[in-house]
Design a protein that fits this description.
AAA_dom; single chain; Rossmann fold; 12% strand; binds adenosine-5'-triphosphate; binds magnesium ion; 7-stranded mixed β-sheet; alpha/beta; 312 residues
């Protein structure tokens, strides 16, 4: 017995030394992510019989592949499951959000590009009702990349998205905007219309790189274009409890951002790439999976925060 303890201790010492050499400087904590983020119970959302006005949330991080699109789809679907009316906006010329909801970008006659650039196109001309009740989509494809260039010469170029969303603000409870991985004019448009910015952060070594720049950009937009813009929250994604540095990154993120970090942590699972291929949210594809449960809990947190705000 003593031998095993010694062995375990020796192993822990080695692990700690290895982590020290990675220079992240945190002690190795528990593998359960909620040990880092848990603060208070998350209430069950009450049913709603009236809808709107919408809380607009921009899903933003100029770092690529951190889970912006996956979170937009699955948070959107989970909010809709709770009876909320949700509009998800594909604001990335890659069109990954549209594809992830089963819309083929090549078969798209009209997209958000036309809505932004052509005064004759209205939001109802491009709006798609997804298979999930209460979840609607404004689709995008590669055409949107031209808007970034064409908008530069327009009056109020940062307000183009705000202008086109205005007619439907009263119809939805939540509007989620899936930003492209850049801090260009499209992202600024999203930050200008948003009430809050949700920043998905991959639980990975370099995830914090670039976050300072993103926060600076949010500050600038708040000073110049959108005085009430809030940091909605930081969402830790792709958490893998088997890797020690995932835990350390999460610990660091909580140290840096405190209660701005969602209590919900999205675990890493192959179900997400699979659901993209299937063109449906994980919440309908595999309702009992950990990923579906994660996003449902996130939806409860988002609803609770919004209800608190309204009660203030
Ligand atoms: N929790 C997760 N576990 C495993 N894989 C995930 C998870 N979340 C997202 N992925 C996968 O990681 C890849 C990147 O995710 P996603 O497209 O959501 O990121 P993104 O931030 O929108 O990327 P981009 O910056 O290119 O728009 C996708 O293949 C997705 O299926
Ligand atoms: Mg994306």
């Amino acid at each position: 017995m003593a031998g095993m303890e010694q062995q375990a201790e020796a192993w822990t010492t080695t692990m700690r030394a290895e982590q020290a050499s990675m220079d992240i400087g945190a002690e190795l904590g528990p593998s359960d992510p909620t040990a880092y983020t848990a603060r208070k119970p998350i209430p069950e959302p009450s049913p709603v019989d009236r809808h709107g006005p919408a809380r607009i949330i921009a899903m933003a991080n100029q770092k690529g592949g951190v889970g912006k699109t996956t979170s937009t789809i699955n948070l959107g679907a989970a909010l809709a499951e709770y009876g909320r009316r949700v509009l998800v906006v594909d604001f990335d010329p890659q069109g990954a959000l549209s594809v992830g909801l089963g819309v083929n970008p090549h078969n798209m006659d009209l997209s958000i590009y036309n809505l932004l650039m052509d005064g004759d196109v209205g939001i109802d001309d491009i709006l798609i009702k997804t298979d999930m009740a209460g979840l609607h989509l404004l689709p995008a494809n590669i055409d949107l990349s031209a808007a970034e260039i064409q908008l530069v010469n327009e009056v109020a170029r940062e307000m183009a998205l705000a202008r086109v969303l205005r007619p439907v603000l009263r119809e939805y409870d939540y509007i989620l905007i899936d930003c492209q991985p850049s801090l260009g004019l499209l992202a600024i448009n999203a930050l200008t219309v948003a009430h809050g910015v949700m920043i998905p952060l991959e639980c990975e070594f370099f995830s914090l790189r670039g976050v300072a720049l993103l926060l600076d950009t949010i500050d600038k937009v708040r000073e110049r274009l959108n005085f009430d813009l809030e940091l909605e929250g930081i969402l830790a994604t792709m958490y893998d409890s088997r890797t020690t540095h995932c835990r350390q990154v999460l610990q660091r993120v909580v140290e840096a951002f405190g209660d701005k970090v969602y209590q919900t942590v999205i675990t890493k699972t192959v179900k997400f790439p699979e659901s993209t291929v299937a063109g449906a949210p994980i919440t309908t594809l595999d309702p009992a999976s950990s990923g579906a449960r994660n996003y449902r809990q996130l939806a409860r947190e988002v609803i609770a925060a919004h209800d608190e705000r309204l009660a203030r």
